[in-house]
Design brief:
single chain, alpha/beta, 2 domains, 10 helices, 9 strands, globular, binds flavin mononucleotide, binds iron/sulfur cluster
Length: about 260
């Protein structure tokens, strides 16, 4: 049996949760599709896993665009996973909707509270560094087993999810608003080691290279990927004091919680 997993992860939380799910699927080959080698035709797979973080109370737009291009759906059992740090917004609802539009059958859907990766919140002390809690991990295992049972032919009902009252009320900020709130991104040339990691982290190729990173505000989606990833703290975001609130999962031993 083969399952294709499609995910988006800037700082690694969602990737770790997805790896955990794939490890739990005994006897199943989990093929990960990436931005570079994107498998959008899922007709050759028995099941699908979709996993994304919450950015600004919803799905990261580049990932929503990828999922909306999926073809070859024929009711394959699907697990949908949305990670979040404080307020889930419409992430899970939108991902389930997109899966259904692609003719996939969502048999398990979960919102997983994870450590916060949004620097302005971390700087305020809202960081959930102990997440995910054991109860949420147990639920993740149960959801992986539900997918496994469906893959083995047992009939599993399709699940439905709905947005909470505040999520419906609040909506989402526009990209322009988020970028404005982020403020300009500037590279401090004295601190920069020219390692290129910021450029690798950028999901929308908004970083040009001119003997160091140059940020293009018109493409930026304010994901803080470059700011979080920079190993030397060389990037200033207008709304943050340098290095404040940067999120690095390795410093809180997140991976060990998924073992
Ligand atoms: C730019 C940005 C915006 C975010 N917005 C939200 C949000 O609106 N609600 C929320 O609960 N978490 C939010 N988060 C937290 C992430 O969803 C959470 O930490 C997630 O697990 C990160 O996943 P990743 O490491 O796979 O990228 C945000 C994080 C970033 C960096
Ligand atoms: S330049 Fe903008 S879109 Fe690219 S990683 Fe940095 S914050 Fe994210
Ligand atoms: S990640 Fe930081 S140190 Fe590396 S090139 Fe980018 S700004 Fe410079």
């Amino acid at each position: 049996m083969r399952v294709v997993s499609m995910s988006f992860s800037i700082t690694g939380n969602t990737a770790l949760a997805l790896e955990h799910v794939c490890r739990s699927l005994d006897g199943v080959e989990c093929v990960e599709t990436t931005d570079e080698e994107d498998i959008l035709d899922v007709s050759g797979f028995d099941g699908v896993v979709l996993a994304a973080p919450t950015f600004y109370r919803g799905l990261p737009p580049p990932f929503a665009r990828r999922v909306s291009k999926i073809t070859g759906g024929r009711g394959q059992p699907t697990l949908v996973l949305a990670t979040y740090g404080a307020m889930l917004g419409r992430t899970l609802v939108d991902l389930v909707d997109l899966a259904e539009k692609a003719s996939l059958r969502v048999v398990a859907a979960q919102a997983l509270l994870m450590p916060e990766s949004y620097p302005p919140f971390i700087a305020k002390g809202w960081s959930n560094t102990k997440a995910p809690v054991p109860g949420d991990l147990a639920k993740l295992n149960t959801n992986a087993q539900t997918l496994l049972k469906a893959l083995r032919g047992s009939s599993q009902p399709a699940v439905s999810v709905s947005a909470g009252f505040f999520d419906r009320l609040l909506g989402r900020p526009s990209r322009q608003k988020s970028v404005k709130r982020l403020g300009g991104l500037i590279c401090n040339k004295t601190l920069c080691s020219r390692c290129g990691q910021c450029r690798e982290a950028c999901p929308v190729q908004a970083i040009r290279w001119e003997s160091g990173p140059v940020f293009d505000r018109s493409e930026c989606i304010a994901c803080f990927g470059c700011y979080n990833r920079c190993p030397t703290g060389a990037i200033d975001a207008g709304c943050m004091k340098r290095r404040d609130g940067r999120y690095r999962p390795e410093t809180i031993g997140l991976a060990s919680r998924f073992e």
